[in-house]
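Re: weekly structure request thread

Next one in the queue (229 aa):
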Amino acid sequence: MTGPTRAEDEETAAARRHDDRLRQLDTARDAAWSSLGRLEEAAIIPIIPSGPYWPGHRQAWRVIHREGGSTLLVTDGLSDPFIDSEELTPGFGLELAIETNEPLPEIRRSWLLRLLREVADEVAEHESVRGWLHKGLMSMEVSGEGMPEPLVTREGRVAVLLGLESSTLPRRFPTPAGHVLLVTIKALLPAELAFMLEQGRNGKRELERRFAEGDTPAHVCRSWRKSVV
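Done, posted below.
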């Protein structure tokens, strides 16, 4: 009979330390999510992860039911400590949030979750995207497959504006590893995308200004609404 090797002991100890770091971030995020509304206890976890690995090799989404009846979905793991680091870090230093006041009979099959996952994959895969998000407002286009028809462009894409300021969501929230940026996702109508591109450098800021003048918080998404342009 032989016991575990020294390498196996070290690997087990490293895994335990990483699990401890994950628990610290989980606790901090749960506190942040719970402050925004009624947090569903169970996370949505994909059977087969899509896209590249997240910092802690975990993909998860949380559902928050907000006052007034809206539904907020957030990524839960982009700020995990990196699995190959012994330091307590907030991973990419951000999480994504998308909210709607439209009914979502089946959240796991909803367009809102599909859009959140598409954007999260882009963020996790591209360091340049994460760099832009930490600097401020940015836009991107993702696949329109399975999305509401009013949001889909002729090219079969959906455009989003990332990082809109919100009057009802914090810009950042604290964790033991440092503050984490909360990046909002706003689904754009094709006409709004065209306007933004026509306006060039000032397009995103002009859309931001117009969304801020609306009756609902600027970041809230609807698939059926009037264009602001």
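The mean pLDDT is 93. Residues 6-212 form one domain.
Next request, please.
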